[in-house]
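Structure ticket #2291
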Amino acid sequence: MTWWFSLLLALHLLAATLWVGSLAFALLALRPSLSALAPPMRPALLRPVMRRFFLLVWHAMPIQLITGYAMLFGALGGFAGANWAVHVMNLFGLVMAVVFAWSALVPWRRLRDGIGDEPVAMAQIRRAGVTTLVLGTITIAIAAFAT
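Resolution: structure written out below.
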């Protein structure tokens, strides 16, 4: 393994950890804990948290995709040299990226700009987060078991 492949892999794993880990924290720790706050106080906490989350993932997601493709084409010789797990990871990564981009550009933008129905936007963001967390967790398991 060359130093550049190790660097790509480290960046790839770091981006995956930030992306999927932040979703796990938000959905499994933060969201259930919000019940301790009075309903009018929840948006005051959620908006800055979500702003930071979307900013973090807007950086982690491209790093994830770029490093994945760099390893795929640099070390594996492209899709023809990749096993089934790499193909599934690619598919799930692209779906996760599209779901994230949609949630950032549609419901989060509406919520951030004060346009539309806040509960609807929050529900859409939550569903997108759950979908992405499930796909990310499956992708991590596939990566671990397919090596």
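Closing remark: The chain is about 85% helix and 0% strand.
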